[in-house]
Amino acid sequence: MERKEIQKKLKKELDKNRYLHTRGVMYTASCLAMRYEYDIEKAMLAGLLHDCAKCLSNEQQIEICEQHQVTISSIEHQNPFLLHQKTGAIIAEEEYGVKDPEILHAISVHTTGCVEMTLLDKIIFVADYIEPGRDKAEHLQEIRKEAFEDIDACVADILYDTIHYLNKRSGAIDPTTAQVYEYYRQYEKEQPWKL
Ligand code: DGI
Ligand code: FE
Ligand code: FE
What is the gyration radius of the CA atoms in the chain, in angstroms? Predict the structure, then answer.
């Protein structure tokens, strides 16, 4: 499927705000690809499709996982929205014809991240957080600037802020998210809000 065709189909599958967010991630991913010398078209396709399963119900998410022998952890059972990264990769492949394993991997880890992310994984993880439509997270101005200076430090800061946000809101932290932060701490820079 061509990117334009995928875009048309996604517009029908997603609600208006999710579609706008998806476009924001696609264009932000293209900017990061320019900065870090990654394939622009691949970054755009991954950005476009990263949330393709976001508007499915919890029941549908669980059903897709069961049909594909994807194990569901207890945290994922409690927070089924976490599954949209895994179901997203399945749907991108089955319904949108994506075969590129790098793109499918970036979709499958975009919410929690993973240890030793590839450049595309980091581009999508960061673009998802900083795209222009986002306005709720703290320190967005600083994190947006850092995204174009040092993407590993930026990943570490996003994880730090996500974990602190979830702690404040008493959201259960997926062990993957915690483990990924422990790994990315090696790249962390001092930030005024962490002192
Ligand atoms: O799908 P999006 O909203 O565009 O973005 P996303 O897939 O990164 O999901 C963002 C949400 O995921 C955000 O509210 C923080 C939450 N999140 C990330 N890691 C964890 C988590 N939520 C829980 N409960 N546990 C986690 O480890
Ligand atoms: Fe998402
Ligand atoms: Fe997203």
Answer: 16
Contact present, 120 and 45 (Cβ < 8 Å)? no
* Average pLDDT of every residue of the chain: 96
Q: What is the pLDDT of residues 36-87, one digit of tens each?
A: 999 999 999 999 999 999 999 999 999 999 999 999 999 999 999 999 999 9
Rounded to the nearest angstrom, the distance between the alpha carbon of 55 and the centre of ligand 1 is 14
Q: How far is the CA of 71 from the centre of ligand 3 (A)?
A: 22
Task: Quick: pLDDT tens for 119-147.
Answer: 999 999 999 999 999 999 999 999 999 99
- For residue 159, give Cα distances in angstroms to 72, 88, 125, 190: 22, 21, 10, 14
CB atoms within 10 A of CB 103: 25
Helices (H), the chain: 3-13, 16-36, 40-49, 58-67, 74-78, 84-94, 101-108, 119-130, 140-147, 151-168, 175-184
Which ligand 1 atom minimizes the distance to the CA of 18? 4
